Every structure is written in C-alpha cells, then in structure tokens.
C-alpha cells in the first residue's frame, strides 16, 4: 500500500507543516460549540444578519484553526462571516473516522443546519479548505452563490511522501477503494477520530476531483469565483533549484486552471504574500469577499478582480 509515513502538507511546496503535534488552543471558545451528532463543532460568527444576504463561511487550511480568519472577520464588520474548526481541531471535539473530505463536508453541512446559519453562502477556503469549499458546492450547489479560493489545493497537487522519499501526485496514490460514507458519531464509538495514515483516502478523493472535472469542467457554472495566489514563492528546505522550478511552474498552472470552474472567475496574484495569505494580507481577502458578496447579491457592477487588485496595491 502506498501509504504515507509522516505526511507533510505542502500544496506543491508553498507551505509545509506536520499534521501531528498541533497544540490545541487554550482558554474559552470565542464562539459557540454545537452538537452535530454526538460531538460538538466550534463556530464563531460576526457581522449583522440580513434577510436574503449571503453568509460567508470560512474554511481554514490543514492544521489551522478558526482563529486564522480573525483579521479577515475584523475587516468585514458589515458582512455576516462564520469561521469554524473542523472536528478534532481548535475548540471542536474529535469526530468519527476516517477523516475524509467527504466526512468533513458532511459535518460542515450539519453544523450550518444545527446553528440555523442559512444560505445563500459565499464559501472561502484556504489551501486544503479550498477542496472542502469545492466539494460543498458540488453537493449543495443551490445554496452557494460565490466562492473565494485562497492558495487552494488542486487535484493534481503533489505532496512529499517520506516512505518513497519523493514528491508524488496525491491522486496517483489511489488504490481504487470506496470512500466510506459520512456519518455521525454513534454512542460508544471507538473509531480512530484523528488523521491516521493507514486509513487515508486522499488518493481516492483527489482522483474523484480529477474525474469529475473531466466530465464537467465548468462545475461552478456562472457563480462569482476568485482564486487568490501567492506572489512570494519560497522553496521548502531540501528542494533543488531544478525541482523547485518545476513545482513552481506546475503550481502556477494549477491555480490558473481553477478559473475554468466558473465563467465568472478571476485569478489574482498578490506579490507580497506567501502561501499563508490570511496572515500576510487579510485585507486583500476581505476586499475580494466583499466584492463577491455584492456581486452575488446583484449589488456589484465592478469586476471583483478590480477591487482585489486595488486592495493589494494599496497596502
């Protein structure tokens, strides 16, 4: 089996961080803890609730907590935004395993229903969270009116596999297994609830993204989509200049490719940010979100890319 040893999150090398050993936050939860079927997820919403107005749902990158979006939320006082912690992260309880993309999208949908955070939604996903935003839109498209993908993962992404000592495409590690259906937590369930390399279905799920694109290249139709890309591209340790140039060129092509998901898509590259744009330039993300929200609500006539560029150049 082509399983991982230590998996490094490195969406084609822009950021590396171990899935293990992340410290849980201390202190009381800043938001609410909501039961979604035998376990609780944490969500913090800010901004006014307006009838019919889109709600922005913020999905952090792998290993990150809802607090990664604090500066973005502060920059959007007039827009309803909700950041949450996936099961087992931040202030959220562990959820049932295996921890798949399918399971985590199921849990987000359950959380939104349990908290009565009604749509329509503008989904914002950073890195791995971008895959969750895309999967949510694929399953619940009628509720989604806009998407902002921040340095998102791509179905052709490569990760560094320590067992093989090589950068390999995740989808090509698929063994053709059936991804278990999502589920709530049954009483007395002792299933492994955290990431377990031996129960990793990422290969199969990335392959499913690939196959779905072949059958339906413009999966998001004509909803507003902004893809934000890092302009500061620093190589990870140990990568040769030749490999880094290959990975960087591939990564740029992948981000441009994501604009084909919608007829109203724009790619914005921020020359001053690295992979962690929520930390490096939250004002840019906020400007893009505000513009997509207005465009989705029929109140924006300016191309959202123009406002994003203005925000970036005005730093």
Features:
alpha/beta; Rossmann fold; 29% helix; globular; 315 residues; four-stranded antiparallel β-sheet
If you had to describe this structure to a student in words, what would you say it looks like?
It is built from eight helices and twelve strands. It has 315 residues and is of the alpha/beta class. Helix 3 links the parallel strand 7 and strand 8. The longest helix is centred in the last third of the chain and has 17 residues. 48% of the residues are buried.
Helicity range: 25-40%
Low-confidence stretches: 1-21
> What percent of residues are in strands?
15-25%
- Give the structural class: alpha/beta
User: What is the N-to-C order of secondary-structure elements (H for helix, E for strand)?
Assistant: EEEEEHEHEHEEEHEHEHHH
Walk across the major sheet and give the strand order. 3-4-6-5-7-8-11-12
Q: Note the main sheet.
A: 8 strands, mixed
* Number of β-strand runs: 12
End-to-end Cα distance, whole Å, is: 48 Å
- Helical region count? 8
Radius of gyration: 19 Å
Q: What would the average pLDDT be, to the nearest integer? A: 86
Q: Which homologous superfamily in CATH is the superfamily?
A: Alpha/Beta hydrolase fold, catalytic domain
Please report the first level of CATH classification, the CATH class: Alpha Beta
Number of domains: 1
CATH third-tier fold name: Rossmann fold
Overall, the morphology is globular
Provide a short characterization of the protein structure.
By secondary structure, this protein is of the alpha/beta class.
């Amino acid at each position: 089996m082509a399983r991982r040893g230590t998996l490094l999150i490195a969406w084609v090398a822009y950021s590396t961080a171990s899935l293990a050993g992340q410290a849980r936050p201390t202190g009381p939860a800043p938001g609410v803890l909501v039961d979604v079927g035998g376990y609780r997820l944490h969500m913090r919403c800010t901004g006014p609730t307006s009838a019919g107005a889109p709600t922005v749902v913020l999905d952090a990158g792998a290993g990150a907590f809802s607090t990664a979006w604090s500066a973005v939320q502060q920059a959007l006082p007039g827009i309803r935004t909700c950041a949450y912690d996936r099961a087992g992260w931040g202030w959220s309880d562990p959820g049932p395993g295996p921890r798949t993309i399918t399971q985590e999208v199921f849990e987000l949908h359950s959380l939104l229903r349990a908290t009565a955070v009604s749509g329509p939604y503008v989904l914002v996903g950073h890195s791995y969270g971008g895959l969750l935003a895309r999967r949510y839109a694929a399953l619940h498209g009628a509720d989604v009116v806009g998407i902002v993908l921040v340095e998102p993962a791509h179905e052709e992404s490569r990760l560094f596999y320590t067992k093989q000592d090589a950068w390999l495409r995740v989808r090509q590690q698929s063994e053709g297994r059936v991804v278990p259906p999502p589920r709530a937590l049954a009483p007395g369930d002792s299933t492994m609830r955290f990431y377990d390399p031996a129960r990793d279905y990422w290969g199969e799920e990335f392959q499913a993204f690939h196959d779905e694109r072949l059958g339906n290249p413009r999966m998001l139709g004509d909803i507003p989509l902004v893809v934000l890309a890092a302009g500061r591209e620093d190589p990870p340790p140990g990568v040769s200049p030749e490999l880094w140039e290959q990975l960087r060129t591939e990564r740029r092509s992948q981000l441009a490719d994501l604009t084909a998901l919608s007829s109203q898509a724009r790619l914005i590259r921020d020359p001053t940010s690295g992979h962690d744009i929520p930390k490096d330039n939250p004002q840019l993300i906020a400007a893009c979100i505000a513009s997509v929200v207005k465009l989705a609500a029929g109140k924006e006539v300016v191309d959202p890319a123009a406002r994003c560029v203005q925000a970036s150049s005005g730093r």
